[in-house]
Design a protein that fits this description.
Helix content is 24%, strand content 32%. The chain is of the alpha+beta class and 351 residues long. Keywords: ATP-binding, Molybdenum, Nucleotide-binding, Transport.
Length: 351
Amino acid sequence: MSALVEIAVAERGVDVAFEVADGETVALLGPNGAGKSTTLAVLGGLLRPDSGRVVLDDEVLTSTGQTGPDRWVAPHARRTALLAQDPLLFPHLSALENVAFGPRSTGNGRRDARATAARWLAEVDATELADRRPAQLSGGQAQRVAVARALAAEPRLLLLDEPMAALDVAVAPALRTLFRRVLAEQTTVIVTHHVLDALLLADRVVVLDGGRVVEQGATADVLSRPRSAFAARFAGLNLVAGTATPDGVRRPDGVVLHGTPGDPPPVDGAAAVAVFRPSAVAVHRGPPGGSPRNALPVLVTELEPLGDLVRVRAGDLAADVTVASVAELALAPGAEVTFVVKATEVDVYAR
């Protein structure tokens, strides 16, 4: 089933458009308030947009009249399924009966619904949980049952709103592996703040910021060659936007960041971005000796522990250094330092 989304919700400042191909998983990425959950709510029929349309496999689910007659299909009739952080299982029903609820609601008899439920519990490795009620389940177990319940209803479109955000870090990897298996042929839109969810689950990503689509494309392309500040930070990369020069990018303040042009190289004077890894950045307390190609005076805004390393943030830029370097350089928020990066470590391409 393919989906077309063209919607605007004026009160929330959301105006987005994108498509989901049959069997494709699309991840919606963006900062808090970007419009991701609003978009899911419109797709699921929980919120009516001010304008636009939602089309699923050539069936118009929502239309506000600009492109045809007004139409709004109720949530229960859309054959979409929404799975959020909270499993929202019925507390008075067993796991098996929770999963059977979907098939029963679409008209299947009790025997057939229970058989379907048993099959999906087996699919998510939760057969042994069939007779337990939600209060007897751990967070990870409850989310497995919720996944089975969503899929047992045979949704044409599955909507996932940060389904692993509330889980213990020890549980999330197993559930991520489960999703990777069961979503292989399921048309899905997932909202996530975790880079691994996007990398392992999504075929494409759509990046929202300020209620607008600022970037979209194949997951590997967007996360390795981001063109928006959020996508770069999400992927753990530095991004400097400006205009292309023969050998780099000129920031709005006139500073040129030298780098290696992509293939094809951006046109001189056109919008371009320079991207480089925090691990490629050296931090100096004062101006470095010699004549490095890229030396950027910055103000430290945050120190973030990363295992054996510390990520030194300076606004939108970051450098990864050792704990010993933090102590030696007396790094702390408010410190004035210089970020140095070799031109060979900087990739430049059109925005």
